[in-house]
Structures are given as C-alpha cells and as structure tokens.
Amino acid sequence: MTPEEQDLVMGLAVGLGEGPTRTLDEVLAHFGESDGGALALRLLRDAMERRDADDVEMALIVHSAADASAEEFLEPLIELFPAEWHRKHEDIVSMLGELHSPKTVPTLVEATRWVPEHLDFDEFRALAVKAIWALGGIPGEEARDALKGLRDAENEIIRENAVKQLARRGEL
Asked: Do residues 10 and 61 lie in contact, with contact meaning Cβ atoms separated by under 8 Å?
C-alpha cells in the first residue's frame, strides 16, 4: 500500500475528538471495490504476505469502518496472531472474541501464555485478560476446559479472570 493509500485509509479512523475525514465509499472507489469486508480481507492477506505491520493496521481500519463480519477473517487472524512482526495482537484477540467460535480456543489460550515483545511492559496482562474474556464467551467443553486449566496459572491476574469467567458461565 502506498503512503497516499495509507493516508486515505487513515481518514476512516476516528481520532481523539475528531470524526473520520474520509468515507468508506471514497476508499472503496479508490481500490476499485464495492464491498468493505472484501477489501479489508484482501488488504489483510496482502499485508500478511508482505509482513507489513502498517498495512495490517490499515486492513483492520477498513474492516472496522465497513462494520464487516469477522467470520471471513477467522483463518487469517488465527494465522496472523502469533507473528511477531506486527503490533495488532490485542485487536486480533478482540475480533476472535466476537466470533464465539470453538475454532479460536487454541489461539486464545496461546494469547494467555505468550507476551509479544511490544507488550512486555504490560504488568496487567491486557492481552491475556481479553483472551480469557473471549474464552468465557465461547460455548462448549473446549473453552470450559481451557478456562479450568487457566485457574492454575502462575499469574494471579490470569487465575482471577479465569475464575470470573467460569463463575459467569456457571461452571465453577
């Protein structure tokens, strides 16, 4: 993606105290697309192929602006999550959490154990907490078992949040 295209996409983002400066229709027209979800998915796959962290962010901005379903993003997001070359791990976990899919359980469990270098400063383990809350919203035994396993984690924040989710599910 060119710097001009990135600026165009950034115009979709809502800044502090400001609304978007571009419309989704303008962005779609520039890229020759009629569907925001399809454009976001194309941009995401292209960014992954090129290992371009900035373009991953652009794809997620288009996805959000288009209010696209995360369902089509399931497999690419699962593949992208563990990559260390980007900084969107928390956004990925949030998107996976929206799906409430058992397919996301292994990735969400990984998110409770792994701390990307760019999040090493976070003593509150926001990534892990988001993953645990996402696990709490997934029906079925696999998510329940993952949460039960996290009750014994070394980290107190992880343990407490796992217990909260199990209690919320009525599975303590």
From this structure: yes
